[in-house]
Design goal:
two-stranded antiparallel sheet; 91 residues; alpha+beta; 3 helices; HU Protein, Chain A
Length: 91
């Protein structure tokens, strides 16, 4: 399922216009992104949690040339599935 399919499913299930459903879905995702950017953890009980993992910079190698490459520090989102979702999927 992609974002537009999620919007359509919400609109159909709750009898909303596509515009209202899109506003709800976009607000939901924007709120998660904003919280993560501020360094906060996002937990959706029964579904899972999102957090940011920070990785330090390092010197790597280009696999095709063997040349050393400096890899900059980075932050990446990390999702951990919740217990209830895990149990639901493994019935």
């Amino acid at each position: 399922m992609n974002k537009s399919e999620l919007i359509k499913a919400l609109a159909d299930k709750k009898n909303l216009s596509m515009e209202d459903a899109a506003l709800i879905v976009n607000t939901f995702f924007d709120s998660i992104k904003d919280a993560l950017k501020e360094g906060r953890r996002v937990e959706i009980r029964g579904f899972g949690s999102f957090k940011i993992k920070e990785y330090k910079g390092y010197v790597g190698r280009n696999p095709s040339t063997g040349e050393e490459v400096n890899v900059r520090p980075k932050k990446l989102p990390f999702f951990r599935v919740g217990k209830e979702l895990k149990e639901y999927l493994n019935l």
